Amino acid sequence: MREVDFGKGPYYADYGDFSTAGYVSFKTMNTLKNSLIKVEGGSFNTTRIVGLFNLLSKQLEVNGKSAYVALENYNTDGPFDSPQNFNRMNMFARFNNIIDRYNMFTLTASLFNSKWDQSGQIPQKSIDDGIINRWGSIDPTEGGNTQRINFIAKSVHQLHNSAMFCNQLYYTHYTFDLYSNFTFYLNNPVHGDQIKQKEYRNLYGYTGKYTKSHSLKKNSTINYELGGGFRYDDITNSQLLNTYKRFTVLDTFNIGDITELNINLYGKLNWTINKWFINIGLRFDNFKFQYSDKKTAEYYTASKYQNTLSPKLNIVYNVSDKFQIYAKFGKSFHSNDARVVVSNDSLSTLPYALGSDLGINWQPFPRFIVNAAVWYMYLEEELVWSGDGGTWEPSEQTRRLGLDLSLRWQVWKSLYFDTDVNLCVARYIDLPDGANYIPLSPKISSTGGLNYKYSKSLTASLRYRYLASRPADEINLVSTKSYFIMDFQTYYTTKSRFSIGLTIENILNTNWNEAQFATDYRLYKGDEDYGLTFTPGVPISFKLGLSYSF
Predict the structure, then answer these.
(1) CA distances from 180 to 301, 383, 389, 485 (A)
(2) Which H/E stretch holds residue 59?
(3) Are 538 and 129 within 8 A, CB to CB?
(4) Could you tell me which of 490, 409, 408, 488 has the C-alpha nearest to residue 454?
(5) Which is nearest to 9 in space by CA: 466, 376, 260, 350?
(6) How crowded is residue 118: how many other Cβ atoms within 10 Å of its Cβ?
(7) What is the mean pLDDT of residues 125-141?
């Protein structure tokens, strides 16, 4: 991974669907400095093999061409009584051709394949009553498999008028089979409530952008970006089934074909003048949803069109070289399930989000940086998890008010400290007080730690993450459990290019819950119940790795 780019909030014109809370963009490496082989092994029968290989000679690289392939195989049984049998295979290949100083072309292909058995969520009460232990299971036949194949072609052109033009075409083939059981025997006391979600998807898309800069006068520049593209999702036989031990189909809840087309255009302008930076953006999105229901006796296809505009405004004022104030405002949206919106005019097709941030960046003394912001977000409609149906359901409009604090401190030459603390109050707007909590919305969260780097030979890190207890339902009858987790990692690299590393996850051996929900459920031959169900987080575990670069 070359870098991870991210941004908070709905303030970025080049990001559209589901960019309400923010975005994350992963950027892979164009070239490899060295080839590498890495082998890791650890707790719970965990093994990982990684290979990075340059494919072209140094002479071709000098001529502007480079190519490499990356391979990974990862296996683990996990800490569960029923082995997880998790297997993941990754393959990634890239070819770069710098045609001349103005033009570059890149081809990328990747394959991801994963399959697993899963012990699933378990009720806290079943542990308290001694029915199972923390690593047991109510339905050990949960699990799944998925595969994704990607092809990307990208070109970058530096134009003679100091402008740049970028194009990207992409295709994805995606398959998905997931077996879950959230309510156990609530609806089917004999065979259980296991559901199978199945999807077979082809995805086609294009993105393009044109950027140009202008110098107006002293201390004043303008640059703008115009972009757009399309994404077409073609889903065949999307299914939600009631199954027994994966392979026996008891009932078909829905089955059909889905197509979704999004065409978008955007423009943004950055203006820097003296101590001010102003960003103005506007995005237009057009959607067409179509669903062919194969469960009905007669052929039935329904479709729906929807447009939305998303304006953005970001203002930064540099009080000094060490103190900056900023304000951000924006509108974005998320698309609802095509199967629902084509047949329901009362449900918003593209629910919108409004957000604002007011914050500072401050360097009170050398090697110490503070970022603090208060923020507000309004959502016209949210999607809430429904455990009994294994689906997401729309809910009422909501508001969130939060405070974020980030600290970055270079303690001394080789030691770095960072922490992020986030506070949030989240409520439904139209529900009465005490019954207006947003299930599972975080109240207090924090991440951070220490990183040590001595020359190029030794690195070490001690990282933590914290999540406070939060309401699991609207009336806060059931709450999740808080947790504080710490991980340790260190690597030592020799002059002969060998590297040895040790990773210890959850070094405090905390009993923590990963996924947590409040759900109606019934155990086999038991009474209907309601309470917290969860997937246990991994206990203390060790992993040792050895790598060689060449």
Answers:
(1) 29, 19, 11, 27
(2) helix 58-62
(3) no
(4) 490
(5) 376
(6) 23
(7) 94
Q: What is the largest CA-CA distance in the chain?
A: 79
Least confident among 76-85, 265-274, 314-323, 380-389: 380-389
What is the per-residue pLDDT for 376?
A: 98
Q: Which two tokens stand for residue 239?
A: 């299914």
Closest by CA position to 547, among listed 25, 108, 41, 8: 41
Q: Is 377 helix (H, G, I), strand (E, B) or coil?
A: strand
Q: How far apart are the first and last CA of the chain?
A: 19
pTM for this predicted structure: 0.91
pLDDT in tens, 461-493: 999 999 999 999 999 999 999 999 999 999 999
Label residues 192-222 b or e (16+ Cβ within 10 Å = b). Answer: bbbbbbbbbbebebebebbbeeeeeeeeeee
Does residue 89 carry a pLDDT above 60?
Answer: yes
306-331 residue pLDDT tens: 999 999 999 999 999 999 999 999 99
Per residue in 386-421, is it b (16+ CB within 10 Å) or e — as a string? ebeebbeebbbebbbebebebebbeeeeeebebeeb
Mean pLDDT across 373-381 = 97
Centroid of chain to Cα 35? 29
For position 341, what pLDDT does the model report? Answer: 86
Question: Burial of 5 by CB count in 10 Å (0-12 exposed, 13-18 middle, 19+ buried)?
Answer: exposed
Q: 282: closest CA among 10, 530, 29?
A: 10
